[in-house]
Amino acid sequence: MASFVRVARNLFSSSFYSHLLKDRAVAQPATKTIQNAVAQSLSVVRNNITQQIKSKLRSEKQLFLTSSASLFKGYNFRNRRLPVKKAREAYATQNTAVELALNSVVKVFTVSCSPNYLLPWQNKSQRETMGSGFVILGRKILTNAHVVADHTFVLVRKHGCHTKYRAEVKAVGHECDLAILTIENEEFWDGMNPLELGDVPFLQEAVAVVGYPQGGDNISVTKGVVSRVEPTQYVHGASQLMAIQIDAAINPGNSGGPAIMSNKVAGVAFQNLSGAENIGYIIPVPVIKHFISGVEENGTYIGFCSLGLSCQTTENVHLRNHFSMRPDMTGVIVSKINPLSDAYKILKKDDIILSFDGVLLANDGTVPFRNRERITFDHLVSMKKPNEKAVVRVLRDGQEHDLSIILQPIQPLVPVHQFDKLPSYYIFAGLVFVPLTQPYLHEYGEDWYNSSPRRLCERALRELPKKANQQLVILSQVLMDDINAGYERLAELQVLKVNGTEIDNLKHLRQLVQSCNAEFLRIDLDDDRVIVLNYEMAKAATSSILKRHRIPSSVSIDHLDTE
Fold first, then answer.
1. Where are the domains of the chain?
2. How many angstroms separate the CA atoms of 482 and 39, rounded?
3. What is the distance between the alpha carbons of residues 505 and 498, in angstroms, rounded to a whole number?
4. Neighbouring C-beta atoms of residue 455, cutoff 10 Å
5. Which of 69, 251, 295, 529 is the most buried (most CB within 10 A)?
6. pLDDT higher than 90, residue 406
7. What is the distance, to the nearest Å, from the Cα of residue 22 to the centroid of all Cα atoms in its chain?
8. Could you tell me which of 277, 253, 281, 279 has the C-alpha nearest to residue 267?
9. Biggest CA pair distance of the chain
10. What is the mean predicted confidence (pLDDT) over 100-112?
11. pLDDT (tens digit, 9 = 90+) per residue, 348-390?
12. What is the pLDDT averaged over residues 534-544?
């Protein structure tokens, strides 16, 4: 439009038109012939202006249409982010996902009851949750572990069916957030088709997430593309395993549903990113296959292997020079070794891990993964089967060594989760002893890291076990009675010794208490605190304290067989 104004301005400022105006101004008494000549000249000028403006408009319009055609060529205006080809692929993926889902994706109804870790002889209120699942080979249903965690009753419903079928949980892997369900009723399997597992999708490949999210009762399909593939924190199991990030929304109820690419499963939806929009995560096929094969080979879930190491990167050149690393060498430094791991007998602190099973480690601890992608070498370790050997090349005192290490799942000193089992406890003279677990600390609320006892929290997250079956036993609370008066402020301290003997776990503590043959029972706690009780009087007071607090037993079910 600015160009049109400039054309008009130039025409009106011409010397001819200015001359005519000037002549018209000074020739007022002129004859009628002069006036007609001026009017005719003005009409000619006006016509010239109109023709030039029309010509300019036609050329500007043609330029705009030509530019627009080249700019938007190959794009679909219904989906302005995707070219037509990719939009068609996404549409085809969604249609294929819908067709496959109708006879394979199911809705899971779970009734669960979680234990109360502060009052370990009680359960919390019963609650009902819903999720998704899908049929796989072998007449099994795959879903998320958190969908059936602490379950007491599980039902499954097919798409388009009004009947709910009773399901049994065959195997649960809380670490990888996967579970396998089975259904005995033959009627359920009529018309059901298993989904086939595919491969790890590449970046920007389209996937369709199928499930039963909140907001409705019927099946739902949402599409998205793969954003990244890397090890991610699994919220349910507090583990670090490979995951696929997609830009499709994964809402409560979607959990356990398949993410379909073409006509195969690319992953299982399991979590989203809190505080972000349209960022969801799916469990990739390698993790799924590792879980399923482990269950088939062992009859139950075993876990994912670990080296039991804490490593430091060697990105600083001075650090590398100090450990005699050549310019062509890359790797990570061994900082801590779990005493329960096989690596504890083979590796040493300050060893430089150069490669794992022949795959070179970078100075940041990553290894090559597909096309110009990198992933932490922990993924290679986690994909190993239990009791499988791995060859680790290390640099020690300037010399390279190839060492063979047997890999095993390693349990932490303080368990990070305790699903599907009741907490352990032992009560004597109103003193409630429990093993320290992270679920116990979670009872302090969402901000448990800051609100729970600082000393217990630090030990739970950082301390390593020194021997097998070791537990950190704490005095969780004191049920008040005359026998324990004055000891109520000693709660939430770790128990170290009973009558001078260091305890290994809760079972050991109970054995030491029951085998006491002295007049007094002495219990040494953390922070140099001591509890002393008359043993016979304390033993007699225990039953009355249990009756007063309506506690059915002084010991948890898992320790009843040792009574």
1. 99-188, 195-298, 309-407, 426-559
2. 121
3. 12
4. 13
5. 295
6. yes
7. 84
8. 281
9. 143
10. 91
11. 999 999 999 999 999 999 999 987 889 999 999 999 999 999 9
12. 95
Residue 23 half-sphere exposure, CB side, CA atoms within 13 Å? Answer: 16
CA dihedral (543, 546, 547, 548) positive or negative? positive
Tokens linked to 456: 């217990």
Residues near 537 by beta carbon (within 8 Å), at least 6 away in sequence: 483
The answer to whether residues 136 and 179 touch, using CB atoms and an 8 Å cutoff, is: no
Residue tagged active-site, from 177, 342, 351, 378: 177
CATH class of 99-188: mainly beta
User: What single string gives the DSSP state of each residue in 366-393?
Assistant: EEEETTTEEEETHHHHHTSPTT-EEEEE
Length of the chain: 563
Question: Within 323-467, where are the H helices?
Answer: 378-382, 438-442, 448-451, 454-462
Query: For residue 391, what are the β-bridge partners?
Result: 404
- Spatial contact of 380 and 356, defined as CB atoms under 8 Å apart: yes
Q: At what angle do helices 32-71 and 15-26 cross, to 10 degrees?
A: 150
**Helix, strand, coil share (%) of the chain residues, nearest 5:** 30, 30, 40
Residue identified by tokens 């054995």 is: 511
Is 255 noted as a catalytic residue in this protein? yes
Q: pTM score, two decimals?
A: 0.78
Q: ∠ CA 39-41-47 to the nearest 5 degrees?
A: 105
CA–CA separation, 180 vs 254, rounded Å? 16
- Class assignment of domain 195-298? mainly beta
Measured CA to CA, the distance from residue 267 to residue 250 in angstroms comes to: 13
| Residue in 104, 132, 146, 417 annotated catalytic | 146
Distance (Å, whole) CA 503 – CA 497? 6
pLDDT digits (tens, 9 = 90+) for 448-473: 989 999 999 999 998 999 999 999 99
Phi and psi of 185, rounded to 5°? -65, 120
The values of phi and psi at residue 197, to 5°, are -80, 135
Q: How is 454-494 classified by DSSP, letter by letter?
A: HHHHHHHHHPPPSSTT---EEEEEE---GGGTT-GGGTTEE
Topology alike, domains 99-188 and 195-298: yes
**What does the block give as tokens for 128?**
């009902």
Measure the CA–CA gap between 359 and 376, rounded to whole angstroms.
12
For residue 255, the tally of other CB atoms under 10 A from its CB is 28
Fold classification of 426-559 is: N-terminal domain of MutM-like DNA repair proteins (3.20.190)
Q: Under a CB-based contact definition with an 8 Å cutoff, are residues 391 and 358 in contact?
A: yes
The DSSP code for 316 is S
Q: What's the CA gap between 53 and 253, in Å, rounded?
A: 63
Instruction: For the beta carbon of residue 461, count every other beta carbon within 10 angstroms.
Output: 13
The C-alpha atoms of residue 472 and residue 456 are separated, in whole angstroms, by 9
Identify the active-site residue in 132, 239, 255, 382: 255
464 φ/ψ angles, rounded to the nearest 5 degrees: -100, 150
- The CATH number of 309-407 is 2.30.42.10
